[in-house]
Design goal:
The protein has ten helices and ten strands. By secondary structure, it is α/β, with parallel strands linked by helices. It has a single domain, classed as TIM Barrel (Alpha-Beta Barrel), CATH 3.20.20.70. Strands 1-4-5-6-7-8-9-10 form an eight-stranded mixed β-sheet. A two-stranded antiparallel ribbon has the order 2-3. The protein starts with 16 loop residues before the first strand and ends in a 14-residue tail after the last helix. About 40% of the residues are buried. The model has no long low-confidence stretch (mean pLDDT about 95).
Length: about 290
Amino acid sequence: MDYEGLIIRPPSEADSLLLQLTVGCSHNKCTFCGTYQEKKFRIKSLDIIKQDLAEARSYGCVEKVFLCDGDVLIIPQIRLEEILKLINASIHNIKRIGTYANAKSILIKSVDDLRRLKELGLKIIYLGVETGNSELLKKIKKGVTYDQMVEASCRVKEAGITLSVTVILGLGGNKNSIEYAQDTARILSDIDPDYVGALTLMLVPQTPLYNDYISGRFALPDKFGFLRELYLIIANANFTNCYFTANHASNYLPVRAYLPGDKGKILNLIGSIIDAKDISKMRPEYLRGL
């Protein structure tokens, strides 16, 4: 496969064929993210994609495909439809195609465009929401507003595509941590996604946020501060039917819950650990990772 640079995918795509359609991220300005720093964004040629799909035919049974890198939906609609048709023609009996997306690129597509992509196999979109605080979205240079994030999410859901979003605990630092968590709960309620993955901030060297930390302009919450944010998000968010996880390697406390049904049980667990300051239940620092 013609992979360029670091290739990442969500944990739930561990068994998927990774097909790189774009290199890097068209936005690539988020202050916390170092994933695509070394990549100049571009859309890969159709010839290279065809070569990768020809190789994929020799892999045997492939049920899921994940489209990389960080911004596949920026590909013009006609070309993206052509690529999805090629995937379906090359890989038989495929059950699901998934991709990362940012809100700006989703908003380029109409609901009908997204419906067409779903008909061609795009069944799940992973959206980095990060935070629901409007000022923090500006500060981290996310490139979209609260309302744009919600509108993009609504388009995905209206098109019938499964929506999985991520938020980042501690992204605002220890100042106003409670406010940031409550605002994140609010945007999650407004979006009402199918899945939520809560990650815990890990600072990446050479990023603007890391530089702020080194210079003393940014202070991380302590372990229990991160847990308090998680507690507040779960306590204040209202979901119809959501699978909520905080089981990424970055998290101090692995959590999996179906919300709203498991809300009381999970809040009791997190609250008891915070109240007891019980670090024995928490992942040690040396086991955390991105």
